[in-house]
Amino acid sequence: MIQPLRKLLTFEEFAHWKPDGERYELHDGVIVKMPQPLGGHEEVTGFLSIALSVQCYQSGLPYIIPKTALVKPPENESAYSPDVLIINQANLINEPFWKKESTVIYGTSIPLVVEVVSNNWRDDYHTKVGKYEEIGIPEYWIVDYLALGARKFIGNPKQPSISIYFLVEDEYQVTQFRGTDRIQSPTFPELNLTAQQIFQAGSSRTASSTP
C-alpha cells in the first residue's frame, strides 16, 4: 500500500497554525509536538531562567529572556522553541519576523540558548547542534540532568552532564561540566554555578548558593 505523502509546511504556515498553550516545533517542514516536560525538567529550566536573568541584569547588556519566542534557521523551514532563550534586544530591529511572529533568525540576536534534555535528546545533540551552529549562535548549552543522551555524548557509564558549545571561527567546540565543576560561560564569565547545583534544581532540593 502506498502511503500518502505528508504535506510539508512553510514557516509562515506553521506560525499561523501554531496554537497557544502547547509547545510545537517545525523540523524541515514537519510539525513536531514537544513532549510534556517532567517536573524536574521544569525545575531545572526555571532555575536556569532565574540564574541567567540575574546575569543579564548584572551585565548591563540589553538582554532579555522571552517566554515563547522561536528560533528559525534563515534558509530552512524549521522553527525551534528553546527551553531558555536569551535575546539581544538591541538587534531586534533587524529581525524580520520578530514583531509579528516573535521569531529570531540571526545569531547576533541570540547570545545564548539552552536546551534541557528530555526523551527527545537526539534533537538536542544531533539536530540543534548543527542548526544553532549554522545560525551562528555563539553559545549553546545542553543540560542533561538525567543522563539521557547517548554514551558518545555523556560518557560511559552515563552521568549527568552539561555540554557547552561555543563558536570558534564559525564552528562549535564543546566543553563538558559534571559534579562540582564550575560552569564556564563565555557569555557570562561571572556566573557562579556548579553543574551539581543545576542538577539539584531538578530533584526538588534547593541549590546551596545564589547565582
UniProtKB/TrEMBL annotation:
Transmembrane segments: none annotated. Keywords: Endonuclease, Hydrolase, Nuclease. It holds the Pfam family Uma2. InterPro entries: Nuclease_put_TT1808 (IPR012296), Restrct_endonuc-II-like (IPR011335), Uma2 (IPR008538). The keyword Nuclease applies. Residues 11-195 form the Putative restriction endonuclease domain. Coiled coil: none annotated. It comes from the Bacteria. GO terms for molecular function: endonuclease activity. This is Uma2 family endonuclease. It comes from Mojavia pulchra JT2-VF2.
